[in-house]
């Protein structure tokens, strides 16, 4: 039995999650991404240094320019070189774009065929950023990262246990009973597997904890304010996304969703009457991403 990195307690879900990570040979965070994160902490960013760093990987660079040229990042303006992209969209958007391409390349390497997963992850990540820019703008990049990684465990489990493949679509909406169903099937869940994957990529605890608990309706009082805010942002993005995708007339299709929404409102400091306005903001962002 292994210990939970967060609490120190033994956790059978993490035991099997570790087996999943070992089976699919998850690598550490790409060195180029580590360097970009280091550059992001510097007071002055040299676009020339960033470009020199990125162009070393020709295949990844091509994917990066393709995504940077998409409406999500540049209103469809075409870029043929890294420096042009940097000058137009700025370093932070470029960094966000590079992170997205890095995850997409990893998913491609493990041979995951479910395109709906990637579309879902990109959309939720975009929603997380928009919501964070409104409620906690200092955490906007972390929120985007959390949204991008939050369901990555659902990609990895089928590589270890093929019987899970038919259940992936059920893991994507914010259904709070999914982790128990997953445990009955594969003795772990996509949240635990995703946390270990993200830990291999050296993401911060403020991202790891919400990732692990994003199908948990509760907010631990011992978590940092940043952790609580990021978890609330992710769950709010998922509730609104589920409503949009299903063309539903409610943000709370499950009984636990109602209590969770009350907690989200408390953490982020807004009332439920603001939800239609937030939904409209996300619809505008979604339209701009097409």
Main features:
17 helices, single chain, Hypothetical protein af1432, 290 residues, mainly alpha, disordered N terminus, 67% helix
Describe this structure in words.
- The protein has 290 residues and is an all-alpha fold.
- It has two domains: 12-28 and 113-289, Hypothetical protein af1432; 45-111, no CATH class.
- It is 67% helix and 0% strand.
- Helix 3 (47-54) packs across helix 6 (82-89) and helix 8 packs across helix 17 (275-289).
- The longest helix has 22 residues, at 225-246.
- The relative contact order is 0.12.
- The model is unreliable at 1-9 (pLDDT under 50).
Number of domains: 2
Give the count of helical stretches.
17
Query: What is the CATH architecture descriptor of the largest domain?
Result: Orthogonal Bundle
CATH topology tier name of the largest domain: Hypothetical protein af1432
Mean pLDDT: 86
The poorly predicted ranges are 1-9
Question: What profile does the largest beta sheet have?
Answer: none
Q: Distance between the terminal alpha carbons, to the nearest Å?
A: 46 Å
């Amino acid at each position: 039995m292994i210990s939970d990195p967060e609490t120190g307690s033994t956790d059978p879900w993490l035991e099997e999650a570790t087996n999943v990570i070992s089976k699919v040979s998850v690598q550490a965070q790409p060195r180029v991404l580590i360097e970009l994160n280091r550059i992001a902490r510097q007071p002055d960013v040299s676009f020339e240094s960033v470009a020199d760093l990125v162009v070393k990987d020709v295949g990844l660079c091509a994917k990066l320019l393709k995504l940077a040229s998409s409406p999500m990042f540049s209103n469809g303006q075409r870029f043929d070189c890294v420096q042009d992209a940097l000058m137009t969209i700025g370093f932070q958007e470029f960094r966000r774009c590079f992170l997205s391409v890095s995850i997409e390349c990893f998913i491609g390497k493990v041979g995951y065929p479910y395109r709906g997963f990637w579309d879902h992850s990109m959309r939720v990540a975009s929603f997380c950023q928009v919501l964070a820019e409104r409620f906690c703008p200092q955490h906007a990049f972390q929120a985007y990262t959390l949204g991008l990684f939050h369901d990555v465990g659902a990609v990895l489990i089928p590589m270890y246990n093929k019987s899970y493949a038919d259940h992936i679509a059920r893991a994507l909406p914010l259904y709070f009973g999914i982790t128990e169903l997953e445990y009955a099937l594969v003795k772990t869940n996509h949240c635990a597997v995703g946390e270990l994957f993200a830990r291999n990529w050296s993401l911060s605890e403020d991202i790891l904890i919400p990732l692990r608990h994003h199908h948990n309706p509760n907010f631990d009082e011992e978590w940092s304010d940043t952790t609580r805010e990021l978890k609330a942002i992710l769950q709010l993005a998922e509730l609104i996304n589920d409503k949009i995708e299903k063309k539903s007339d409610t943000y709370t299709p499950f009984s636990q969703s109602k209590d969770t929404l009350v907690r989200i409102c408390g953490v982020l400091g807004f009332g439920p009457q603001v939800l239609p306005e937030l939904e409209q903001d996300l619809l505008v962002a979604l339209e701009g991403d097409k």
